[in-house]
Fold this protein.
Amino acid sequence: METPSSRSGAERTAGSSIQVGALVPLTPPGWVEAGRHLLAGLELAVRDVNDAGGIAGRRLELVVRDTAADPRRAEAAVDELARLGVAALAGEYHSVVARAAAARADALGLPFLCSSAVLDALTDKPTERVARLAPAQSRGWRIYADFLLDQGHSRIAVAAQPSVYWTSGTRILRDHLAQRGGSLIELDMGVLAPAAVCDELVAHRATALLLLVGHPDPAVPIVQAVRRDRRLTEILIGAPAGQPEFTEWAALLGDAGSAVPFLRYLPERLGPLGARVETALRERLGRAPSFVAFEGYDTVAVLADVLRRRGADRAGVAETWPRVAVEGTRGQIRFSRAQGISVWQWAWPPIQVVDRDPAEPDRFRVLHTG
């Protein structure tokens, strides 16, 4: 799928622009709203770069491909974009898809700046070609576990679906909770219906339930079932992966979707650049931008800096990650080698645990920072 901001290789005039491939989930089963926010940030930053003179006088251009949350489709898109001659890849929201794209890009010698995916093992082995803006899952989800423990929750259930991403999250939570005396109860959503989840929560005397499942199904039916069950009026529902960030969550669940803590990667206060970008993104999206939109903007800001240094040379772009020092919307971005992470990593973007205020569901409350 192409957007108005992208063009095919045949339409391109050689030397007229520097092209960057953008991987974005824009159709189901991808998380479409997240994809739209990511693309809005990418496109706004490209506009700002070009308004400021481009890359050494050459326009920056996005060549957008829809991954639809499909790893195989993402791999095919990487192959196509490499043939079209893009200088680098950007984007992707879904961790499993980003992992497939990163492996393919690395094999082709194509630098990839991943915007939003958090899976620690983004590549099987260390690589110089891939860098990432989002915090690693192990960092963010440990901060989330600390929040739960600080709130007095030590018997925590997870409703999980089979996935490398959800399995990794479950392991991180279990290990970190165990270090502080907490325990994790795993509920397999491959066999349990939402009503059965309620029975399991009562049987295990859990005080918190975490949704490690897809949105909207089965996340929304699970929340509805738990909220209706009078036995579970005191239980905390949490969603570390960020499902409640987007308006679709509030539209589907109404008041039931409030007071569900999730991870968000924003600072307590935005600086001048972040505030300006927030205003522009709000105009573009017609609503408040999510943290994913800021990740998109920061991705292009970094790539523009790298391309100004090294031009469209792919090897040169990959060599520049450790020398990046860019003021992004959420702070200064620098890449380093973080322990246990195989790619160049911004260590670390700001991390918050927030929820939707029950008294005003369009307002977010910051509950914890890390």
Notes: Confidence is low (pLDDT under 50) at residues 1-14. The first helix runs from residue 32 to 51. DSSP finds eleven helices and 16 strands in the chain.
